[in-house]
């Protein structure tokens, strides 16, 4: 009788073990899925990222106007863009707009994300309305705000007491302000989603313990919520930096790099060189500079923040 009683649970456990999900089995053995699992993504990344990047790098040493065969010119393209004052100015403008994007979107996204993660009344409805800009393309958003801010027929023309002559695109300061505002309006909902998910993952026991200790709402936010969002903040900032360095449509539609070259950022200058001036070699050199700059800045942020040391018990297991 005792033998039968002991064998029954053992058989049930064996049956349960046999039905264990693949990811649980991987975790139990302390191993990762094989390389074949990553092969489709690796091939896709190689074809649509690595190969085009190599082609751009090769083209940066060529002279090509889009017709005929490219001619090798060595480092001539690189020398020209280094000595080009418009290129130097575009770099500073790109960094300025990127810094403004991070400075404006980060605090706003954190506050909205933490709020959206709560249990406020009508929170779901208000959040759904607020996330509408996330559904629109950059082109659609730029066209929308170009119409709304038109100096002749838009909002500024009706509110001259606030906007003066109404031409927000006629001066560098206001034009840069418009670009920063439109980018913030469009992309803040995306980063809000990141912080909303991260805020919901914070263990409630931490808030309960803090409430018992007498900590108020603001103290819980600064001493519990913000530290728990640290890795999400770093991830969001990296996405903002890369997005800021590569933004293009907003400038193309709203300001066309003007007035003059006062909003000509590097990505837009690359477009001008390659597709308006038919100097694809110089355009490729500028594009490669942007890729290198975005990579270096992202690595610096990761390194300084310690994000590269973050580990997970389920790392490598899906």
UniProtKB/TrEMBL annotation:
GO cellular component labels: plasma membrane
Keywords: Cell membrane, Membrane, Transmembrane, Transmembrane helix, Transport
GO biological process: transmembrane transport
Topology class, membrane: Multi-pass membrane protein
Compartments, as annotated in UniProt: Cell membrane
Domain ABC transmembrane type-1: residue ranges: 91-301
Listed InterPro entries: ABC_transporter_permease (IPR051393), MetI-like (IPR000515), MetI-like_sf (IPR035906)
Transmembrane segments: 35-62, 91-116, 128-148, 168-187, 233-254, 280-302
UniProt cross-references to CDD domains, sorted A to Z: TM_PBP2
Segments of this protein annotated with the region Disordered: 1-23
Biased composition range(s): Low complexity: 1-15
Family: Belongs to the binding-protein-dependent transport system permease family.
Protein name per Swiss-Prot or TrEMBL: ABC transporter
Native organism: Streptomyces bungoensis
């Amino acid at each position: 009788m005792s033998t039968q009683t002991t064998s029954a649970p053992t058989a049930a456990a064996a049956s349960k073990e046999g039905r264990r999900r693949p990811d649980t089995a991987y975790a139990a053995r302390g191993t990762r899925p094989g390389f074949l699992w990553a092969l489709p993504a690796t091939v896709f990344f190689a074809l649509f990222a690595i190969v085009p990047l190599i082609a751009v790098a090769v083209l940066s040493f060529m002279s090509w106007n889009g017709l005929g065969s490219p001619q090798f010119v060595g480092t001539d393209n690189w020398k020209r863009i280094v000595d080009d004052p418009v290129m130097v100015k575009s770099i500073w403008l790109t960094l300025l707009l990127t810094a403004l994007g991070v400075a404006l979107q980060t605090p706003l996204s954190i506050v909205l994300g933490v709020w959206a993660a709560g249990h406020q009344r009508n929170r779901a409805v208000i959040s759904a309305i607020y996330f509408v800009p996330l559904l629109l393309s950059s082109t659609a958003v730029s066209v929308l705000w170009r119409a709304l801010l038109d100096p002749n027929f838009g909002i500024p023309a009706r509110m001259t007491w606030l906007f003066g002559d109404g031409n927000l695109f006629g001066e560098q300061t206001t034009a840069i302000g418009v670009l920063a505002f439109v980018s913030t309006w469009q992309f803040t909902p995306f980063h809000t989603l990141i912080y909303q998910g991260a805020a919901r993952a914070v263990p409630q026991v931490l808030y309960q313990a803090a409430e018992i200790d007498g900590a108020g709402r603001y103290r819980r936010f600064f001493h519990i919520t913000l530290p728990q969002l640290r890795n999400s903040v770093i991830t969001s900032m990296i996405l903002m930096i890369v997005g800021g360095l590569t933004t293009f449509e907003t400038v193309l539609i709203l300001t066309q790099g003007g007035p003059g070259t006062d909003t000509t950022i590097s990505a837009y200058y690359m477009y001008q060189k390659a597709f308006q001036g038919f100097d694809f070699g110089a355009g490729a050199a500028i594009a490669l500079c942007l890729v290198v700059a975005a990579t270096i800045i992202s690595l610096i942020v990761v390194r300084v923040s310690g994000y590269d040391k973050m580990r997970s018990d389920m790392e490598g297991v899906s």
